[in-house]
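Lecture notes, structural biology module. Today: joint structure prediction for complexes of two components.
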Amino acid sequence: MGALADKLRALEGIVGEAHLVTATEGVGEYRVEGQQPVGVVSPGTPEEVAAVLRAAAEGGFSVLLRGAGRHLHLGAPPEAVGLVVSLARLGQIVEYDAENLTITAQAGVTLEALQRAAGERGQVLPLDPPGGDGATLGGVVAANLAGTLRTRYGSPRDLAIGLRVALSDGSLVKTGGKTVKNVAGYELTKLFVGSFGTLGAICEATVRLAPAPEARAVLAAALPPERARGMAGELLASRLEVTAVDVANKAGVKRARASLPLTIGPETRVVFVGLMGDRTAIDRQERDFRKMVGGGCARLEGEEAAAVWRGLREGPYPTGPEAVVARAAVPPASALDVLEMVTGWEGWWALARPGDGFVYAGPPVGCEQAETEGRLANLRTMARESGGRVMLEAGPVELKRSFAVWDEVGNLDLMRALKEAYDPARSLGCGRYLPGL
Amino acid sequence: MVDKKVRRALEKVVGRQNVLTEPADLLLYSYDSSTAVGMPEAVVFPGSTEEVARVVKACAERGIAFVARGAGTNLSGGSAPIRGGVVIALTRMNRVLEIDEKNLWAVVQPGAVNLDLQDMLAGRGLQFCPDPASQKVSTIGGNVAENAGGPHCLKYGVTINHVLGMRVVLPSGEVREFGGKVLDHPGYDLVGLMVGSEGTLGIVTEMVLRLRPLPEDSQIVLGVFETLEAAGEAVSRIIAEGMMPAALEIMDRQTIAAVEASFPTGLPLDVEAVLLIELDGLKESLDRQAERCAEICRELKAREVAVGRTPEEREKLWSARRSAFGATARLSPAMLVNDATVPRTKIPEVLRKIQEIERRHGVRIAKVFHAGDGNLHSNILFERGNEEDFKRAEAATAEIFRACAEVGGTITGEHGVGVEKVKFMSLLYSPADIEAQWKVKSAFDPQGLANPGKVLPERAPTGAEA
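The predicted structure, tokenised, for the full assembly:
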């Protein structure tokens, strides 16, 4: 106990008394999957983060990095949570270069703050992960989170062009830069994006922005399953410039809280088309879409469109601590087959993003775990048949313990060699990512 | 030259006809399109992943370096075997194995030529976005190894944004699959590390590329300006108004002169800049955008503004830009090509510096740039065989790199570090940053046999404090 107190005092020496909270002072809100950390330390600068990581590695702590805590449901149950290192205090926008469509901000800056800054200059950060704009840039980049806009704009893997990362040896390194084109050295940015805080702490990121569109609209059509499948394929192969294509079953529509002037029965799928651009382009695409549908199609604009779009964005976000959300990643043309299979299960919701080959799905409230697990296994088998896989994004700890969260993956030896190189003390990540990372 | 035993081992893998060891043959593989040179000890032409793997394994067992090579269009020395060893030429592996129109992917071998793939795709209304200027000859494997760019990156991104998965022969000779056909493989982004690694982490023998439907239509606006600043300002206003052209290209007076001397297209010779704006997308938005771009050019006192709407008109306007590199090479076959890149708005500042460097060193620099993404190609002409002249060109290059790094730019936007830019890496990265990159190299290639001497400066001794 004395040893622990000494180690915590060392951390306190780095960040100051006010920014270390120990278990005895109450860290309940920082519990992860039922486990309580021994302390929460909140460094205020990238230099402090680096020093904290070094001290934590030397002290033998198991470190969980944290932003706003909006996506802590992602990952396997932790082996042990020692120290939570919160990056929430890294709250500065370092440089907003509007003319070059890039913004550099610290890890703790929320998407909301970034959108506000960009909005003032007629720009947007084209990232809309589920969980709202309260999430931090660092977290979104570390977990490579994206949403409905991904088909058009990509994920953080595409949008992040430079990082500043603290490593567990106490060094602070720069990857990439501020230009879209940059091939000087290895693409370390890609290595850290999506590494879930297992290799280092992303303290700062430079990301690309996009011009804000003149207008947004959502088109929605209720179709029988076969027609919906054809429609998704036709839209994505067409030369239209749709921003988002989502397809939902009845429970999926309800989950997205989309109130639509359409009749939706159990045998209906709703195809949502998100459009951004100038009005002439939106009108033209609506005409084409109506022709493809050959009938009823709702066009939503303004606040109505925004509400539906928000609903689609939030659809995959878990509704509570016990909620189960799975994500299948399959070839784009197979996404609607997966949606159909899930729809065949009593009460299951499904939301497909065929542009990227993702299908989010989950059981109805109160579904027995055994049944859920059986269904998820079927889903995984089906996804694997087409070269895909299924990740369990959220679920109760017991389910996560019996159903592999990340699915199978190859090249673990190489990944472990990278882990060993960047985090030899294995202090980062708490075992929430792949085995050994 | 490799000894007989090694030669026999290589012949056993790929067949006698696919191994070169005669000095005259080796000479042909001793250089690429840069100034770097190094004699290989053997050149092999494997025909399959398995053969590549066996060749690499044979090298690994004997501690022989190996260098992968495509069409040899590399502009930084990435494919020159500066430390000898075996050149693994992938030109026989040039097949497009699969084009899936429904899932929008293609599976290709590394030796497939970029433009050949584009032609196959265009017939189906599809494209692979990266289209570097070298696309007529450069291979997809090379494009991936260099993370190639091209003129369309502001809107469509670079190669790394369009690669889903790959088959890789590791420096040990093992064959692996990185990524795949679906998105978001769990685990570290090994595909992301391989793209742009210049053959120093292994050899890619098959790739899954993400495709896009071709845009419905495109239009070209060409503005002729009295000053480079005015052309640059036009670019700024276009972007500030929320337009996202597919390409924004600027040529300076030297380049215009070179183009007109070789491939006359009727551009005036007494102007400082030609700006070419390519817009693509839905027909309905294009007319309005092209009109607005033309207006911006006129507001900025462009001497001439032309709009190309039909394919013929567009081709005519693009042709000058496309021939720029060849035309400059005709003026002076020897030139140092560089591709430093800066945040776009820093272009005027850097251009002034480059003009000053030009004067001070008494060199001629032809400038062409991808103005949308800040990628400057300042081609420094020199007289072949004139040592003094070459030294001046090198000194000017170094100063240009420094100037670009100072404004937050990079030393290479699309050509790679190769050999030529290794010594400039420290302009961008601290010793700790470089060490972080070395960790990747040693995880993949502990023996250091994959394209040695490229990308990274010598590693600091272990234990050195960063």
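Point to remember: The radius of gyration of chain A is 22 Å.
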